[in-house]
Amino acid sequence: MSIKQEKESRKEELARLGVPRVSIDLMSDELTGRQKLTVMKYLMLEDSLSALGLQKFGRTTTDNISLKPVRDWATQHWSEEFVLDMSKRNIPISFRASLGLALFTTRITEHLADIDGGVEIYVTRDIKKVFRDHKLPEPEGLVTIDYSSLPPKAKADLVLPIMDNLLNAQIVAQAKALFPNGIPTKALYFADMSSIMTLGLSGNKDEVIKFDKIRNLEIQVMAADIALRNLGRMGDLIAWADKADEEEKARKARGEKREEISFNAAMDYKKEPDLHYEEGTRFTQVFPFREGETPEQMLQAFKRITKGQYYDGSVDESHRGEYLRLHINREGRLIGHYGWDKGFAYDQAWQIEIDMLSGKLDNEYTDNNRRKTVRGLVADLRDDMDANKQARDLATSQYRQTSFTVEMGFLQAMTGEYRQEATEAEVEEDKRLAREAKKTAAQLSEEDVEQISIHLARISEKPVDMKTVELDFRILSAIREHYNIDPMQLVRAMSSTEPIHIDNIGKWFEGCSSLLNRYQSVVVDIGQLFVILGIPPTNDEKAIISAYRKITMQTHPDKTIEMQPEERVAAEQKFQRTTEAYGNIIKRVGKVNTNRLSPTYYLGRISQLFQVSFTEE
Fold first, then answer.
1. Which of these, 394, 396, 419, lies nearest to 407 by C-alpha position?
2. Which residues, at least 6 apart from 164, have a Cβ–Cβ distance to it below 8 Å?
3. Residue that wins the pLDDT comparison between 132 and 244
4. CA atoms in the 13 A half-sphere facing the CB of 196
5. What is the pLDDT of residues 362-379, one digit of tens each?
6. Residue 6 to residue 421: CA distance in whole angstroms
7. Phi/psi of residue 406, each to 5°?
8. Is the pTM for the entire model greater than 0.70?
9. How far apart are the C-alpha atoms of 98 and 159, rounded to whole Å?
10. What distance in Å separates the CA atoms of residue 328 and residue 330, rounded to the nearest whole number?
């Protein structure tokens, strides 16, 4: 057999095992620190997908796939209904992620369309945008909408904002139970200065944020989040705020000027380091090392980000051939080569060599490029060293290893480089990781799947062809090339104060994992709801109501006023869980829930999270 035939045979064999994979080691310097972090986000997305286990898909789910190439592929290759084992890895990752998100979007749209009397929402900016995009009249405040009558695309687009409604309302409801009298903005200001500034509150006003009005829910949820994250010291901060108010009133009575809280005084500003050092200064002498770091680690980072070549500097006329390339010589000095490529603006190439730390270019225009380049290099090295450490720490803490196999298309799309296919032993190790992730997965049992899909094709048992892998590579490459730069990043780039580290594949993976987890946070297992009520599964409505009343009589907020704060929170949470369980079960008494999993009762009923009704201002 020729080498070419052997390679083709190997590809076919790996296709049968799963998507062709390659082996990587996070302890090596083949990848940059940020690329290693992307690998970790890839692995975490794999875990989130594995946790879904066996799932049933229909045509509606396929229609909700956001990535058009995946939607087209599924429409062409799969039947009206199919079952997919999401813990297996023989379907490319962009396909499985798209299917997972589409699955939950479909379940939630079906649940919301099923709610009698419409869906209750608080209209946020995101919800207004969906209505605008679909040329629908924009609602205001806390309203009930006829969700079932909306266009299918509008229904799907509203899923995430409505989920945010629920999650935000849960945070505010919890803060309301803990802080019934509200929280002074002064206390919030010193708990989290940067966040409270974004609310437009200076911390100087005699203002208290109370969690009992539906208006300005976005402000309430940020305040509630700050309070809950700083629960341990919130009491001291509120006491300090009360004392500050008393002192302010005393000053006012004496006719003294109000004392302003200085934001700038609390910030730790650092001046840019002088870039004109003594001749012979080594780069390792001025680099901002963190505790425990060595010059060798910095040099390894330089090798990673340059692939063993030169570091390309900042120049203003690169389109005309201007360049500035850097390397670190054997003495540890940072040397730059500044010039113009032959064949561009000048007939002959010219180049000068300069010590980037002690030298200076002829004029302010070109020397500004030198200063920008040194600052950019330091920031890039610092970013790579931090990301490299973070990736290795994540790998060892979560997986207890640093060697992994990943999809070939993923690595090629991320790096633009081809790698050797993984060996059978490496693929088997990868499967072992998948099994470990599957142990903690909340998934349907084999018996459940057999009952609901005995006539359906088991798509995950079919091998994936190389065309599908190539399509996955093109999808991930498109994600990688799609730049999303917010205005502040653009300003920083223009002022050269901070380089932009764009990691779009990793950002997409992280976003998918986050969305899957958020979807799962509002999806419950009906079988577990009876455990919350403390009774065995039953269709006896009287038994269900009796169990519900028994628990809520002890945990209702009216019964917990005299409890300690921690006990009150526990009772509040138990009351909410019980009410949610009861709401889900009572709607399904006498019905067969074939999927076992369904969205939570409060999704689309957010005001029922609060025991005291919201009042409009």
1. 419
2. 124, 126
3. 132
4. 24
5. 777 778 888 888 988 998
6. 13
7. -130, 165
8. yes
9. 15
10. 7
